[in-house]
């Protein structure tokens, strides 16, 4: 039996051109650690964001990209699969082959608009369109500030279709000590929506009781 048959169900992760590449990269790492097969798509703009916001350089060619992501995340051979922007034969392009869950993280407002209007101009948009039409889990993580009425209308429309709109707006009640803690806050929220167990941060009620007492006293 080949190793890839032992992976947990695949999750599609797409990075687009919004700020917050760290969220998507961390999500890939955690999914790999949890034993899931991860199908990855990275837009041209997202490559630029990764290069701007991190010290990571990711190749554009899918096979080389899969190798680079596998090396940084410690993935097993075949655990990460990458697809090009116009690879219409990729499994994510069809309802009969797409994964049961997809996350666009970070999600640019351009991608948000395209998905909301069913544009399907590239593989990321088509994969999201498939997730919606097949009634599968789709989590979109927009990172913009402020949101315009156009953005808000698109998010409302998608939410009414069952899409999870999860803005990259980390909380502070867990008393983060680093940027990594803030990133993990959002990644933990995504994993909750996917039904994947994690230990990135405690759930509400598992926080330090002294902190909870302070919140109560301040109210």
Automatic annotation (TrEMBL):
<feature type="binding site">
    <location>
        <position position="143"/>
    </location>
    <ligand>
        <name>FMN</name>
    </ligand>
</feature>
<keyword id="KW-0808">Transferase</keyword>
<feature type="binding site">
    <location>
        <position position="43"/>
    </location>
    <ligand>
        <name>FMN</name>
    </ligand>
</feature>
<comment type="similarity">
    <text>Belongs to the UbiX/PAD1 family.</text>
</comment>
<feature type="binding site">
    <location>
        <begin position="17"/>
        <end position="19"/>
    </location>
    <ligand>
        <name>FMN</name>
    </ligand>
</feature>
<protein>
    <recommendedName>
        <fullName>Flavin prenyltransferase UbiX</fullName>
        <ecNumber>2.5.1.129</ecNumber>
    </recommendedName>
</protein>
<keyword id="KW-0288">FMN</keyword>
<keyword id="KW-0285">Flavoprotein</keyword>
<dbReference type="InterPro" id="IPR036551">
    <property type="entry name" value="Flavin_trans-like"/>
</dbReference>
<feature type="binding site">
    <location>
        <position position="189"/>
    </location>
    <ligand>
        <name>dimethylallyl phosphate</name>
    </ligand>
</feature>
<feature type="domain" description="Flavoprotein">
    <location>
        <begin position="10"/>
        <end position="194"/>
    </location>
</feature>
<comment type="function">
    <text>Flavin prenyltransferase that catalyzes the synthesis of the prenylated FMN cofactor (prenyl-FMN) for 4-hydroxy-3-polyprenylbenzoic acid decarboxylase UbiD. The prenyltransferase is metal-independent and links a dimethylallyl moiety from dimethylallyl monophosphate (DMAP) to the flavin N5 and C6 atoms of FMN.</text>
</comment>
<dbReference type="InterPro" id="IPR004507">
    <property type="entry name" value="UbiX-like"/>
</dbReference>
<feature type="binding site">
    <location>
        <position position="173"/>
    </location>
    <ligand>
        <name>dimethylallyl phosphate</name>
    </ligand>
</feature>
<keyword id="KW-0637">Prenyltransferase</keyword>
<dbReference type="Pfam" id="PF02441">
    <property type="entry name" value="Flavoprotein"/>
</dbReference>
<feature type="binding site">
    <location>
        <begin position="108"/>
        <end position="111"/>
    </location>
    <ligand>
        <name>FMN</name>
    </ligand>
</feature>
<dbReference type="InterPro" id="IPR003382">
    <property type="entry name" value="Flavoprotein"/>
</dbReference>
């Amino acid at each position: 039996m080949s190793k890839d048959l032992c992976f947990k169900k695949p999750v599609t992760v797409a990075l687009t051109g919004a700020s917050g590449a760290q969220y998507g990269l961390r999500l890939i790492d955690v999914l790999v650690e949890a034993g899931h097969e991860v199908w990855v798509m990275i837009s041209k703009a997202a490559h630029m964001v990764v290069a701007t916001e991190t010290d990571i350089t990711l190749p554009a060619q899918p096979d080389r990209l899969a190798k680079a992501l596998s090396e940084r995340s410690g993935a097993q051979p075949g655990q990460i699969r990458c697809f090009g922007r116009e690879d219409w034969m990729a499994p994510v392009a069809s309802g009969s082959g797409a994964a049961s869950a997809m996350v666009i993280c970070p999600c640019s407002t351009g991608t948000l608009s395209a998905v909301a209007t069913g544009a399907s101009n590239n593989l990321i948009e088509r994969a999201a369109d498939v997730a919606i039409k097949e009634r599968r889990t789709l989590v979109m993580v927009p990172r913009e500030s402020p949101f315009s009425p156009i953005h808000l209308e698109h998010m409302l429309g998608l939410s009414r279709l069952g899409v999870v709109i999860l803005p990259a707006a980390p909380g502070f009640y867990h008393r983060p000590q680093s940027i990594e803690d803030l990133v993990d806050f959002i990644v933990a929220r995504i994993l909750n929506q996917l039904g994947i167990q994690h230990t990135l941060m405690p759930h509400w009620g598992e926080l330090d009781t002294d902190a909870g007492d302070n919140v109560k006293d301040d109210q």
